[in-house]
């Protein structure tokens, strides 16, 4: 479980999928920019450089950021700042933050970067794409590209017809949002989306990568998860395909079978990390004092959490064991 927890604490499914399929992400979400890039030359993720310009992170918010060096068709170096706002709500300072990151890149590294944002929220009216100010003798206007995943709801047929990995990513995201109160329906969609991976005739590596994303975002309560896993196992056996397993899945099954409080705590902490972001040590300590029954109740409740405030409210309503 150690490697699994380390990965869960320091990464997100969006970061993993962006790293695995970055050219496809650009071609899917930002085709005009992608058309400028020479994809025959390798791109480079500038994680250390990004850490130098991202000095703050608000507790409870969830981002996935990538700073990437690519090469233009004409041969020049270009930096791309890709920001995924995973569970966003309307935020007045979002555009300012995008400008600030862009300015810091130029200030620290003397590189002009293209800033792009993928918005995963459910507010159709929130579409920040510029930051500006204007005075008689000084003015600034900064624009950045955005994609709103919510807009793909009306392009479902197009998503189904696409073999770009990010069509599957968007489908999983949308169906997760749409089934927050309909978990039985979520189970059916999760199975359908994973079955689609096989029907597309993808390579085993692609199936595993996309399965991992779907499994990570389309969280199910224990009972439905067990039903889903049996259905998927039967489906794979009928198609005489190899049985998909991951360290995360193995850890889940072990925790469920052993029924130990420690295993339950580990699972709940991992799922909370995925739902609301980094947990303060004090909050982790509170969760570690919960009884098995309380942990199971929290495991059900967290499916509807969108921010750390939801967790704090739940803990306030449930006295510690």
Number of strands: 7
C-alpha geometry: globular
Structural class, judged by helices and strands?
A: alpha/beta
Question: What fraction of residues sit in β-strands?
Answer: 5-15%
> Helix and strand string, N-terminal first?
HHHHEHEEHEEEEHHHHHHHHHH
Structural overview:
The protein is an alpha/beta fold and 321 residues long. It has three domains: 2-151, no CATH class; 179-255; 259-321, no CATH class. Helices cover 55% and strands 13% of the residues. It is built from 16 helices and seven strands. The chain has a five-stranded mixed β-sheet with strand order 1-2-3-4-7. Helix 2 runs antiparallel to helix 10 (204-217) and helix 12 packs across helix 13. It is globular and about 65 Å long. The two termini are 25 Å apart.
Summarize the topology.
Layout: H1 2-10, H2 13-20, H3 22-29, H4 31-34, E1 44-45, H5 47-53, E2 63-71, E3 77-85, H6 94-109, E4 113-119, E5 130-135, E6 138-143, E7 145-148, H7 156-161, H8 165-178, H9 183-199, H10 204-217, H11 222-238, H12 247-258, H13 261-276, H14 281-288, H15 292-301, H16 308-317
Parallel strand pairs: 3-4, 4-7
Antiparallel strand pairs: 1-2, 2-3, 5-6
Helix pairs in contact: 2-10, 8-9, 8-10, 9-10, 9-11, 12-13, 13-15
Pfam family, one: DUF4351
Domain DUF4351: 257-315
InterPro entries: DUF4351
List key phrases describing it.
single chain; 321 residues; alpha/beta; two-stranded antiparallel sheet; 16 helices; 13% strand; disordered N terminus
Please summarize what this structure is:
With 321 residues, the protein is an alpha/beta fold. The protein contains 16 helices and seven strands. The chain folds into three domains: 2-151, no CATH class; 179-255; 259-321, no CATH class.
């Amino acid at each position: 479980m150690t490697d699994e927890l380390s990965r869960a604490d320091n990464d997100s499914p969006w970061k993993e999928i962006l790293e695995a399929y970055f050219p496809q992400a650009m071609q899917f979400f930002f085709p005009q920019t992608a058309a400028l890039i020479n994809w025959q030359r390798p791109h480079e993720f500038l994680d250390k450089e990004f850490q130098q310009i991202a000095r703050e992170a608000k507790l409870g918010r969830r981002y996935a950021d990538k700073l990437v060096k690519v090469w233009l068709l004409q041969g020049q170096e270009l930096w791309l700042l890709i920001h995924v706002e995973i569970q966003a709500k309307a935020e007045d300072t979002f555009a300012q933050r995008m400008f600030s990151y862009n300015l810091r890149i130029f200030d620290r590294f003397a590189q002009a970067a293209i800033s792009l944002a993928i918005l995963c929220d459910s507010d159709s009216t929130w579409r920040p794409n510029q930051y500006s100010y204007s005075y008689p003798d000084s003015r600034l206007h900064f624009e950045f590209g955005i994609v709103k995943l919510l807009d793909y709801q009306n392009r479902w047929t197009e998503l189904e017809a696409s073999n770009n990995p990010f069509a599957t990513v968007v489908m999983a995201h949308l169906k997760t949002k749409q089934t927050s109160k309909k978990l039985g329906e979520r189970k059916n969609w999760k199975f359908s989306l994973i079955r689609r991976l096989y029907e597309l005739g993808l390579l085993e590596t692609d199936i595993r990568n996309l399965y991992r994303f779907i499994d990570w975002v389309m969280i199910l309560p224990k009972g439905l998860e067990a039903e889903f896993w049996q259905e998927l196992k039967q489906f794979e056996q009928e198609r005489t395909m190899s049985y998909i397993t991951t360290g995360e899945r193995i850890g889940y099954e072990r925790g469920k079978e052993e029924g130990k409080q420690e295993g339950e705590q580990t699972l709940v902490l991992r799922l909370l990390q995925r739902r609301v972001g980094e947990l303060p040590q004090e909050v982790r300590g509170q969760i570690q004092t919960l009884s098995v029954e309380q942990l199971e109740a929290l495991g059900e409740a967290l499916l509807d959490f969108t921010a750390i405030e939801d967790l704090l409210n739940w803990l306030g309503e449930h006295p510690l064991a």
